[in-house]
Amino acid sequence: MAITLADLETGQEIGRSSIDLTRLDLVKYAGASGDFNPIHWNETFARGVDLLGVIAHGMFTMGSAVQLVTDWIGDPAAVIDYQTRFTRPVVVADTTAQPGQAGAVIEVVGVVGKVDPDNSTARIDLTVSADGQKVLVKAQAVVRIW
Amino acid sequence: MTINPDLQGRSYPAAEVYTVGREKIREFAQAVKATHPSHFDPEAARALGHRDIVAPPTFAIIIAQRADAQLINDPEAGIDFTRVVHADQRFIHHRPIVAGDELVAELHVDQVRAMGGGAMITTRAEISTVEGEKTATTMSSILVRGEEQ
User: Fold this and answer.
1) CB atoms near residue B23 (< 10 Å)
2) In which element (H, E) is residue B23 found?
3) Between A and B, how many CB-CB pairs are < 8 A?
4) How far apart are CA B17 and CA B130, in angstroms?
């Protein structure tokens, strides 16, 4: 079922998702992205720079949160503009001894922020939080709707 | 170490070519827990009108951060990488990135603002194919924390 602009109105929720992550996920993201900053995998280093522990890459959070939008619209290429501010780190607990248990959970809610018929686009505003606190601010994805 | 205020307005020309591989798209998609078939299956991507499998919306960060590295590693810039915090990020896609693309990035330092003992540096990477087709514009601000921050 293709989504059309006429189906959308400001304030409408497009869906929500819950992303479990572990330190292994951060190691995988480091390898895939090339960002090997040790604050994302080395507890001693992270605490040495006054963090509460190993934190997720901001780009992991940004990159995983947008799947809600791509799955909803049905084509990743429809996301023509995506931005966010990083406000709070996502601390990922060490759950190595508890296989299957998440070290952090990222919660995402998507809402239609604006419908722009002139440009055939809609802006989806994402609320992204972990541990009850917002970790991204002004997370907005503009999708082209054909 | 202080940030060189003359960085503002500087640009770094396109350096090495980045060839977008299918397996890299698949690896990156898995790493951000993306499951859309067009990231993995060429047939699913073609069914949506794409030449090959499609990169996730934030894939261009790989190319943008390689371009940023030219600035961060520039001894004239005065940036201590261990004190860098990612403040914001934006991707504008002029057309989707697909497997097989050969991309280059030109880096522009758009703004340098002193913040306490550190600085907020805003960069923009203009990503295009080697043939010159505009592909994506990425914008990123990094906060370089001062010694007392």
Assistant:
1) 9
2) helix B22-31
3) 107
4) 8
- Domain ranges in chain B are 5-20+59-144
Instruction: Find which of B18, B22, B88, B137 to mutate to test the A interface (most A CBs within 10 Å of its CB).
Output: B88
Homologous superfamily of domain range B5-20+59-144: Hotdog Thioesterase (3.10.129.10)
When scoring A80, A92, A140 by the number of chain B Cβ atoms within 10 A, the one with the most, hence best to mutate, is A80
pTM to 2 decimal places: 0.95
pLDDT tens over chain A, length 146 residues: 588 999 999 999 999 999 999 999 999 999 999 999 999 999 999 999 889 999 999 999 999 999 999 999 999 999 999 999 999 999 999 999 998 899 999 999 999 999 999 999 999 999 999 999 999 999 999 999 96
Is any Cβ of chain B less than 8 angstroms from the Cβ of A2? Answer: no
Q: Are B76 and B12 in contact (CB under 8 A)?
A: no
Q: What's the CATH number for A5-20+58-144?
A: 3.10.129.10
Residue ranges per structural domain of chain A? 5-20+58-144
Across the interface, whether the CB atoms of A86 and B89 are under 8 A apart is answered yes
ipTM: 0.96
